[in-house]
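Anyone? Bumping this.
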Amino acid sequence: MTIHPHCTVAIVGGGLAAGLVARQLAREKVQTVVLERGGDVMGTAAARIPTQRDELRWDVRIGLMQDAATETYTLRRSRDELSRPMRRLNAFLPGTGVGGAGNHWNGQAWRWVEYNTKLRSRLVERYGRKAIPDDMPLQDWGVSYDELEPYYDLFEKLFGISGRAGNLNGRIQPGGNPFEAPRRNEYPQGPLETTEAGLIFQETVQRKFGYHPFPSPAANSPGAYTNPDGMRLGACQYCGHCDRFICEANAKGTPAALLYPWLEHQPGFKLQQGAQVTALDYDDKAGRVRGVRYIDLLTGVEHLQPADAVVLAGFTLTNAKLLLSGGIGRRYDPVTGQGVVGRNFCYQANSGMDLFFPGRWLNPFLSAGSTGTIIDEFNDDNFDHTGLGFLGGGYIGVNVSSGRPIKSRRLPPGTPRWGSRWKQANADWYAHACSMGVQGSCYPHRENFLDLDPDYTDAFGQPLVRITFDFRENERQLSAYCTGQARKIADAMGASVVGPAVPRSAPFDTRLYQGSHITGGTIMGADSATSVVSPRLQHWDAENLFVAGASVFAHNAGHNPTGPVAALALRLGDDLARYVRNPGRLS
Amino acid sequence: MKDPQAHSAPAPGNSRREFLRNIALVAGAASLAGAANAAALPTEPEGESPPSEYLSFGPDEAAFVEALVDVMCPADGLTPRGVECGLALFVDRQLAGAFGQGERLYRNGPWRPGRAEDGFQRPLTPEQFYKAGIAAANEACRRRHGRPFAALDHGEADEMLTVFAAGGTADEPALLGEWFNELVYPLFVQSCFADPIYGGNRGKVFWKMLGYPGLPAVNGLNMVRYRGKPFPGARTPMSMEDFS
């Protein structure tokens, strides 16, 4: 084994959360090593014209994602089922390489509604204690929106986020999201252009329903932009190759464009590529980790990186895996409800339908990753749930992000699947159809959790993470309700045909992409009996171990998770800079 | 970034052929190591016609897939028949290449047949599964019509595809439905709409059919100029080769 010189902070994973933690540490001159299993994708065929625009390679064959042959996950829908490995990754897609999935995201950069970090308190206050089912372990996160606001603000500036404010210092702004948490500043950049489909949606929900549509907050840069670190973005070219692709125009806010090129010039920062982390060195008696073990993928040799403090900032499931395999913290037991590592694993209850507008040119190929027009009237607890029989909700919107022809063609129900009539329908509808989607929340369920699979291993001989998950009654009800609300809007938009509005339901289908927004497993909270990390993201059983990423979310909302991931990571960076100078339990 | 429309027309050169030859060399090596019926390495095709040597299919398999793509994509006012669009060639190349050999597929045991929602759970490569399905499909055709799929007339073949898509005959229910819906059909769609550099969608004929403009580099102005209007670039789609 190769033992490296001691470092101050070692970070597991080189994605968005890691880059933001490291950025705050670098500003305080704290020596940091980032351990990333993958390499640098910038400057490769994935980031150049014309090879960047290869739908088969990067989208259908998910060329930039984690290789399932090396590491995947198993799934069962209940404890009495045998697990099966996801032999192909389809439902959610972990990234790999410097910058991680933050390089090939669509760029929806939301602030979650302010009550989300105090959701349990909010729901108890509004509906009473009995409104929360016994099998729904909702809990407050132990952090307030006000504490996160400066970090949301900083993230938006660092990534040049575009949008239109809906709530400036408590004053509701026309054209923005009236349910938005109060913000001290406008978005750093104005909104993207609205798509034709977005205009139809906007007009319909305003005029016929009185709702408040607004442009999706986006990390697709509408113009040239320079961030506070002097890092630059170009203008988005609306090329329709964003999610699952690297932006060759350098117009997408990504860790590979904005964080790591800056970090590599900072003294004391080191990025170790090809470092497959396999374990944390944990001293349970001392309640500390001594460092990080990894395999150097160039040689296969095991290395140890000793550190004063360690941050887990891998993919959601990686963070849980390293704690479970290292025996760090008590494993969650769904029978007793005791234990913490693996609990509150959540997905999202997403659904949608296709709309067809003969004669209207929707031109889906003219789009950016986050050219969406959205309403939040039915999201989370923005509406009264009294008597509805479920908690949570979702945004409803028309996101046009691609006209890529293999996967983004829409055909009316009843169209034959092949032959001349199939071809004719493709020719007739390609430029004249769009979809409307619901991004539905997913609250925790006692029986949705993570542990280690007893039968399957990865390429490094370690157990695969086993996911026990299905859409339970609450999510099925909320999806039926929100999909029904979306259907009412669709019917009023003037489409000649509206495709079936199918709510998300059980059984969970691993074949279908349902968004990569999985959360939980190493959740945060004020009570060590029900959380893995404290409100400062400090591990309850290992004082010098911290966790960043959506694995700390105690539930999942009806918004993309990147905003709160980023805000929490920036705050953690500041906390760590304090910690390394004055170690102890952070309060 | 230059306006892609300003690029010169693609030279009537060999980049597509070279690409196909290159993937043929890589895939050919994999086939020799694995599949029993790997074709000999191709030689440079003569003249301007695209290469047609199959790297995965034997003659009976080629006949099956050629019949399949011609039924699923008959010649009509929109496109030539499937074989002429390169659709069989695309499928062959995918099966002989990384996808067909199981790239990005977790292949550790234990093997547990699952429900449909668990996805692919067979200890086969996609190439092996595709060929096992061809054999089962031909068997189903022989039982019903006394002939293999490639010898059926268009109506019979079309009807058999409907049978496969619905889950196969009573004798082979588990194999044929998954085979057709999860492997054959997606490869067919990809053969139509993927970049022509992979061998299908020859002449960008399916992109022209849709009105998909291909690979524009810059739409910053087009986004506003053509919002709600026909997009002129849709008539002359640009592929990877057009940028090379």
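Late reply, but here is one note on the structure posted above: The two ends of chain B are 14 Å apart (CA to CA).
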